[in-house]
Amino acid sequence: MKFSDVPILLEGEILFDASAGNDVIDKAYAADLLSDVLALTEERTTLITGTISPQVIRVAEILNVIAIIFVRGKRPSQEIIDYAQRLDIPMLTTRKTMFETCGLLYANGVRPCKNRTADE
Amino acid sequence: MSDMNASLTYEVHAGDIEQGGSASAALKSELRKMGICEEQARRVGIIAFEGEMNLLLYATNGGTLKAEVTPEAIDITVEDDGPGIDDIDLAMRPGYSTAPDWALNLGFGAGMGLVNMKRNSNFFEIHSHTGKGTLIRCRVNRRKNDAAD
Ligand SMILES: Nc1ncnc2c1ncn2[C@@H]1O[C@H](COP(=O)(O)OP(=O)(O)OP(=O)(O)O)[C@@H](O)[C@H]1O
Ligand SMILES: [Mg+2]
């Protein structure tokens, strides 16, 4: 689905919409632990997270993340939003839980990104 | 461009949450500008990031993150002067972590960092002495079709 359709689905608020505006969200990875995002994702993906530390946007830069969806009403600082703008990584926030966010996206065709498990 | 030699060094300060990860993000961005492909720059970025966060979280005086680029490879060195790691095998075990609670709030402390550094490297070595410090060397080869295990 298109990033611009996600806020309606999740009753969310866009924090920054990328200049291209036609980014397709077709795969995602959900985790609060950035360690897991760094260690276990194996391709470029949309990130669903409740973590708003300054590290989230740097991990997104290193992993070339497509878009970030913040859940549970978490709202990153203005510095993080500005940084995302420089990187052209679209971001939105929703009051929905991670569980519901993932369920709604899955029902709309979004699938897990290529990943491993911690025991592999 | 892509076959020039370069050396990049970053100081990492202990406990500096605001800056944590910025050296690695800057390094990745520099590598991309030098013409290093996204896949290799991503691997170097991951290695550097894990090393940088460990310096921030565990090294008493912080430490240095260094990357040397040659036509053959990118060599990453992460070095600090203490406290050192008592049991390296234990520290390398996935899931083992002594991260404080404030690290968990930042999204860290899964005990995955060192293994992830090794996994993304074509060559990995770690030396540590209690009271002296820790030295980690990782190499990412630049030849095509030379992915890490
Ligand atoms: N430079 C260092 N100096 C001293 N101890 C270290 C250093 N780096 C790592 N350690 C020790 O090794 C453990 C494992 O490190 P590792 O990076 O694998 O996981 P972590 O930092 O605990 O969690 P994660 O990296 O997944 O966020 C740490 O919890 C810490 O006890
Ligand atoms: Mg670590």
Features:
heterodimer; A: about 120 residues; alpha/beta; Udp-n-acetylmuramoylalanyl-d-glutamate--2,6- Diaminopimelate Ligase, Chain: A, domain 1; B: about 150 residues; alpha+beta; Heat Shock Protein 90; five-stranded antiparallel beta sheet; 5 helices; binds adenosine-5'-triphosphate; binds magnesium ion
Indicate the topology.
The complex is a heterodimer of chains A (120) and B (149).
Chain A: H1 6-10, E1 13-16, E2 27-30, H2 34-40, E3 46-49, H3 55-62, E4 68-70, H4 78-87, E5 91-93, H5 98-107, E6 111-112
Parallel strand pairs in A: 2-3, 2-6, 3-4, 4-5
Antiparallel strand pairs in A: 1-5
Chain B: E1 6-12, H1 22-33, H2 38-58, E2 63-69, E3 73-80, H3 88-92, H4 101-106, H5 113-119, E4 123-129, E5 133-141
Antiparallel strand pairs in B: 1-2, 2-3, 3-5, 4-5
Helix pairs in contact in B: 1-2, 2-5
The complex binds adenosine-5'-triphosphate (ATP) and magnesium ion.
